[in-house]
Specification:
7-stranded mixed β-sheet; binds acetyl coenzyme *A; Aminopeptidase; globular; alpha+beta
């Protein structure tokens, strides 16, 4: 074992294969290859990677964690009505977190918390942005605990939001208001 030295950097085209592998390992949902293409090329998606500079065997630049997010128009989102809506500002936006993951062996070090902080800081820096939001499957207790600890608010439970292997699962919608919400 070694002492991890976690560092955060943008996701790059050379991360594509490992990014796809980790998504496959961590999530019950399959993502299109177009999704990974868009993430690594930064097309409509913002993302951050965590790497361990002390990781042995030439893996010091390999992803150990990531977060991906998309900017959406508030009025076109499902939470547009939960914001302090100002009709004179139709350009209001939100940051929607698509995926967040940390590989086994690097959990409980605060990496996911730091990645969420990056998203919140980024969202706060966008003048038109009112909130960061996301969906999480209802049985994912570690993730739900994390969002609550980061002061996200649970807005609602969505019945049958996910369809996985022919089974329906509920999701929770969490939101973190920025710039006055
Ligand atoms: N030392 C010890 N413990 C710490 C430290 C530290 N320095 N920093 C944080 N912790 C604790 C936190 O307090 C937290 O405690 P809790 O279990 O009581 O909530 C716990 O460690 C987890 O916080 P982080 O370390 O920030 O989170 P982690 O990096 O382990 O990642 C995650 C959490 C992303 C949920 C991870 O378990 C994972 O990848 N799971 C599989 C994929 C997944 O479920 N992703 C989220 C799906 S929802 C979505 O993608 C929108």
């Amino acid at each position: 074992s070694h002492r991890a030295s976690i560092c955060y950097r943008p996701i790059e085209p050379s991360d594509r294969e490992i990014l796809e592998q980790i998504h496959c390992d961590l999530f019950p949902i399959r993502y299109e290859s177009e999704f990974f293409q868009n993430v690594v090329n930064g097309q409509d998606i913002v993302s951050w990677a965590a790497v361990d500079r002390n990781r042995p065997n030439g893996r010091s630049d390999e992803l150990v964690g990531f977060v991906t997010a998309r900017i959406v128009l508030a009025k076109e989102s499902e939470i547009g009505d939960m914001l302090r809506y100002d009709p004179s500002k139709p350009d209001q936006t939100l940051v929607y977190i698509l995926t967040l993951g940390v590989v086994d062996g690097y959990r409980n070090l605060g990496i996911a918390s730091s990645l969420i902080q990056k998203v919140i800081k980024y969202a706060s820096s966008i003048q038109t942005c009112r909130a960061v939001y996301l969906h999480v499957i209802s049985y994912n207790d570690p993730a739900i605990r994390l969002y609550k600890k980061m002061s996200f608010q649970c807005l609602r439970r969505l019945q049958g939001f996910y369809l996985i292997g022919g089974q329906q699962y509920d999701s929770y919608l969490f939101v973190y208001y920025v710039n006055g919400g």
